[in-house]
């Protein structure tokens, strides 16, 4: 089926507002079944009809400036096809079951000012030479 026909069919199924939202943030239009919403407000969808293999699940992030680390571990396993059942149906994949889990999300600080930076307390073996010019 051509891309234009698929786009028109999705436009009719999801509406103009959702069509514009998906084109801006996903770059493609998708129509599927809402599987669940996590505690951050991200929505998880699945469409088993007329899609390529391993392209049937996707996430619609709540935040415009999304951080992929905001996907909970259970939803990450589901969206990566590691498990068949979503965390809403599988008790083991839900958060808050284990005592060692963090109660809130810690963002990924890579490439930010708060990122971990190593430093050395030893004196370097070589030091930079600064030329000194004699006055004339």
TrEMBL record:
Q: Which UniProt keywords apply?
A: Electron transport, Membrane, Mitochondrion, Mitochondrion inner membrane, Respiratory chain, Transport
- Please state the protein's primary subcellular location: mitochondrion
Instruction: Classify the source by domain of life.
Output: Eukaryota
GO terms, biological process: response to oxidative stress
What are the annotated GO cellular component locations? mitochondrial inner membrane; respiratory chain complex I
The protein's location, in the record's own words, is: Mitochondrion inner membrane
Q: Which InterPro entries has this protein been placed in?
A: NDUFA12 (IPR007763)
Q: How does it sit in the membrane?
A: Peripheral membrane protein
State a single Pfam family of this protein.
Answer: NDUFA12
**Keyword Disulfide bond among record annotations:** no
Function noted in UniProt: Accessory subunit of the mitochondrial membrane respiratory chain NADH dehydrogenase (Complex I), that is believed not to be involved in catalysis. Complex I functions in the transfer of electrons from NADH to the respiratory chain. The immediate electron acceptor for the enzyme is believed to be ubiquinone.
Record-stated family: Belongs to the complex I NDUFA12 subunit family.
This protein is called what?
NADH dehydrogenase [ubiquinone] 1 alpha subcomplex subunit
Q: Which organism is it from?
A: Aspergillus brasiliensis (strain CBS 101740 / IMI 381727 / IBT 21946)
């Amino acid at each position: 089926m051509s891309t234009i026909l698929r786009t028109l069919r999705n436009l009719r199924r999801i509406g103009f507002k959702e069509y514009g939202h998906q084109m801006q943030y996903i770059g493609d239009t998708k129509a599927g079944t809402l599987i669940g919403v996590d505690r951050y407000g991200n929505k998880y969808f699945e469409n088993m009809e007329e899609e390529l293999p391993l392209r049937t699940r996707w996430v619609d992030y709540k935040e415009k400036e999304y951080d992929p680390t905001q996907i909970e571990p259970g939803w990450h396993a589901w969206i990566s096809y590691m498990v068949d059942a979503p965390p809403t149906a599988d008790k083991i994949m839900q958060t808050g079951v284990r005592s060692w889990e963090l109660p809130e999300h810690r963002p990924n600080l890579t490439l930010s000012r708060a990122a971990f930076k190593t430093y050395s307390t030893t004196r370097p073996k070589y030091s930079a030479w600064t030329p000194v010019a004699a006055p004339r």
